[in-house]
Design a protein that fits this description.
With 176 residues, the protein is α/β, with parallel strands linked by helices. It contains four helices and ten strands; from the N terminus they run βαββββαβαββββα. The protein has helices spanning 9-19, 68-81, 101-117, 163-170, and strands at 2-7, 29-37, 42-50, 56-59, 64-66, 84-90, 123-128, 133-138, 146-153, 156-159. It has a seven-stranded mixed beta barrel with strand order 1-3-2-6-7-8-9, surrounded by four helices. A two-stranded antiparallel ribbon has the order 4-5.
């Protein structure tokens, strides 16, 4: 089983522009507010929220951490919208992108909490490299993620690397 994300081409262009600003090699991030279609296993993007410097407790070349205020604001906004969340961040310079062990440690803390706060709504995560993307989603009561197979962008389909789900299945990340 795998999930898909449906995103307008203009939104995807905004995401890429935000994640890879000229001259800045730090990780960047943002969130998609989505409706989730359980039958299709699909996230339909309804709003994109890029994060700015003040939204982070830490923003480095290889690490991001949200501030407590940002986390609380995301949860409130998603709750008010009745939306699922998909987090997005980048790994600048990677060509075969996958989630890092630091990303996975963040998921272990954040995913159960946010799913509890949002009444078990599905939660997704995407990581972008310059020319690729990978993703996970937690869509049911299992603590195990499923792969996000790709992003439907207008008439096109951007496939994920599926490197992260392969690493997860090999036991590289551990469990949540």
């Amino acid at each position: 089983m795998a999930a898909v994300i449906h995103m307008a081409a203009s939104t995807h262009a905004d995401v890429l522009s935000h994640l890879f600003p000229k001259g800045d090699k730090r990780e960047q991030g943002g969130f998609l507010f989505c409706q989730f279609d359980e039958m299709a296993q699909a996230f339909q993007v309804i709003e994109w929220m890029p994060l700015k410097g003040s939204d982070y407790a830490s923003q480095e070349r290889d690490y991001l951490e949200l501030s407590d205020e940002t986390r609380a604001g995301l949860i409130k906004k998603a709750h008010d919208m009745g939306a699922s969340l998909v987090e997005i961040h980048c790994h600048p310079g990677q060509t075969k992108v996958a989630f890092s062990l630091a990303d996975w440690m963040g998921f272990r803390d954040f995913v159960p909490h946010i799913r509890w706060r949002l009444a078990k709504k599905p939660y997704g995560a995407l990581v972008y490299g310059y020319d690729c993307v990978d993703g996970f989603a937690w869509v049911d009561d299992s603590k195990q993620p499923i792969s996000i197979s790709g992003i439907q962008i207008g008439d096109g389909f951007l496939r994920t690397t599926e490197n992260s789900i392969k690493a997860f299945l090999r036991g590289s990340y551990g469990s949540i």
